[in-house]
Amino acid sequence: MMHSRVILSFALILMLCGLGVSWAQDQGSEEVRGAFLSSREKTGSTKPRNRTPRRPSPAKKTNTNSSTNLNTGKTNANNDSDGGTTSPGPAAIGLGYTLFMRDTNGDAVRVDPSEEFHTGERVRITLEPNVDGYLYIFHSEGDGPPQMIFPDWRLQDGDNAIEAHVPYEVPASFEKDERLRWFTFDSNPSTEHLHIVVTREPLADVPTGDALKTFCATNKTKCPWKPAPEMWAKVQEAAKADVEVVASTNYGQPQTDKEKVATTRGLGLDQTAPAPSVIRMSASTKAPVLVTVLDLIHK
Q: How many other C-beta atoms are found inside a 10 Å radius of the C-beta of residue 83?
């Protein structure tokens, strides 16, 4: 009888510990979700955000005076004219993303990024940063080499500046050719890898703007631009940094009109808009870069 009571007590302790861990995890998830969504505006803006190229100032040119060094995880910045230095904002970098699939009616419906996809299915991803900064997206297929699909010299003059809580679509739903509005899975099964990089300052050694336009104009066979192995190793290493992740269960729900308008007009999402399906936030407020790896499995 004593032995049975010991086992029962031990089982009860394990159950209570499990409940405690689950409660702590849920509390942590809500804190991450709350921190991300609370930085949205409370009510929607009727004016589009600035969608014209936001280039670094002359004192902060890409690849010269101000850039994010993926090797050290630090931001390199020269002194400003008043003797001060540029420092990252207090908010941890966060990124919310939602994967949409094209349904039989041509509408965008939320889908679980971890599910398997099949030939002919079409998807696009919506990205929502919580800070002003810069966006880079690299794509690779299977074990193939990566290539940069954003910024693109044909879009916004190669600019890749982003604004907090303004959603960005990849590919864009407003492309004239409907076939260009989605990623379409072809007849060759593989795993599609997307490395989504959000930084406070431009990445060193990555061409954007006029530099990217010039590169692609003079090296058409080498465009899209491909990172050097040593630079790519730094991106992969940065992807291992500690992050907080929270996922929702809103799969199957269609994209709302508010989300569509915000995306096409460059409006910031407010707190009444649906939360992204997945929110990832740097564990450190000092981190200058957040790398998100999205693997799409094509069977």
A: 6
Q: Give me the amino acid identity at 32.
A: V
- Intra-chain end-to-end CA distance of the chain, in Å: 55
CA 140 to chain centre: 16
DSSP strand pairing (161-162 vs 116-117): unpaired
Q: Rounded to the nearest 5°, which phi and psi values hold at 49?
A: -70, 170
DSSP state for residue 261 in the 8-state scheme:
H
Calpha distance 210→51 (Å, rounded): 17
* Distance (Å, whole) CA 135 – CA 151: 7
Which bin fits 212, alpha (ψ -120 to 50), beta or left (φ > 0)? alpha
Contact 298/190 with Cβ under 8 angstroms? yes
Q: Which two tokens stand for residue 77?
A: 């910045």
Question: Cis (ω within 30 of 0) for the bond into 167?
Answer: no
pLDDT single digits (tens) 163-198? 999 999 988 888 877 778 899 999 989 999 999 999
Q: What is the separation of C-alpha 93 from the centre of its chain, rounded to a whole number of angstroms? A: 10
Residue 69, judged by CB atoms within 10 A of its CB (0-12, 13-18, 19+), counts as middle
Of the candidates 241, 288, 279, the residue with the CA atom closest to the CA atom of residue 28: 279
Q: Give the C-alpha separation, 226 to 6, whole Å.
A: 62
What residue has token string 């090797």? Answer: 71
Kindly report the backbone phi and psi dihedral angles of residue 37, in degrees, each rounded to the nearest multiple of 5, phi listed first: -75, -30
pLDDT digits over 241-284, tens only? 999 999 988 899 999 999 999 998 999 999 999 999 999 999 99
Query: Which tokens hold the place of 238?
Result: 């940065």
Question: What residue type is 7 in one-letter code?
Answer: I
What does the alpha-carbon distance between residue 35 and residue 219 come to, in Å, rounded to a whole number? Answer: 43
Give 52-80 pLDDT, tens digit per residue.
Answer: 444 443 334 444 445 677 765 555 554 44
